[in-house]
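Q: Got a minute? One more chain.
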Amino acid sequence: MLYSLVEMNRAAMAPLRLQAKAANTMWSTHANPLRDTQFARSIAAASKVFERATRYYGKPDWQITSTGIDGVEHAVEPTVDWATPWCQLVHFATEDVAEDRPKLLITAPLSGHYATLLRGTVEAFLPTHEVYITDWTDARMAPIWFGRFDLDDYIDHVRMMLEHLGAGAHVLAVCQPGPPVLAAIAMMAEDGSDAMPATMTYMGSPIDARRSPTVPNKLSEERSLDWFRSKMIHTVPAPWPGAFRRVYPGFIQLSSFMHMNWDRHVDAQARFFDHLVEGDGDGADKHKTFYDEYLSVLDLTEEFYIQTIERVFQKCLLAKGEYRYRDERLVKPQAIEAVGLMTVEGELDDISGIGQTQAAHDLCTKIPDRMKEDYVQPGVGHYGVFNGSKFQNEIVPRVIKFQNKITKS
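A: Always. Here it is, folded:
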């Protein structure tokens, strides 16, 4: 019912949104002699803020067309290299560049936002790597005949993509994918796979959610699975392709994140209004760039969401050595011996607290210390672990240096 009410509200707001767009056009057009008055700029700005706050944000484009390598710009074309109904492996093919560059698989989180949230992550590694990223399917766009998609299916997908890329690739897991990526590589190691990656890097991942619990961790512990099913799971309405599928809607995840920092988001909208009134195009563009991405959300299948809550946040099965793939096979991180392990955390991370990612070192007991590295980035929160200036200038060079050390050893 909630999902249908949200859709009805969006439809009901459409006329007001159109009026706001018309008002913005009328008061900001060069044909209006009052255009440059404080009154006109204020009306136009208020209309723009209202229109953007009530619009539907679909899946963003990658907007990556080139990258600079050794002072030369090279064209970049995102192409689908491998796919299933539930995921597309996007390859950022770089023209006129040697093909012997190391392959990097970025496993994007399936936690409410599209993979494009990691646009900055992709751009940072393009000059040095053949970059691939997991682009997960929005559950509201998945017809019910696609079948189920749960946490173990996620593990299967990671394994299949690594086997597709071949031995020696590097894996970068950002946030939520940490536990399933570690599980996939552990099973590959135990099976003697010939497609083992050279390194695995976990960034702000809940490998052991018991350490330095944050607000989301505590919520997961305090509520029962029945509560999550009754309060967080809803049915996709028509006319979405995934109609009748039970999902955890992206708009619920978004509202949860926004309420964690509500004052900050309110202040951001106020500053956006001021930028528009003052004619500060750069400030307004930065706001729009961030929120165009932040407000674009996708839905998760019920089974994936509930299993993640139970296995990763409530029972911490992987951290306890009790995770059973398909409820049968015990996952053994200690089976990994020849894959470099790096963990990266943010000092101010309020999603994955300090120590949750570092726990991977305690689980992978067979990896030699010389093949391990841990780094805590001062002065950044969760988002800053994989995006922003400190990520580009301090974290990325360390990751690349670690990868080079492992591949040359």
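A: DSSP finds 14 helices and 14 strands in the chain.
Q: Perfect, thanks.
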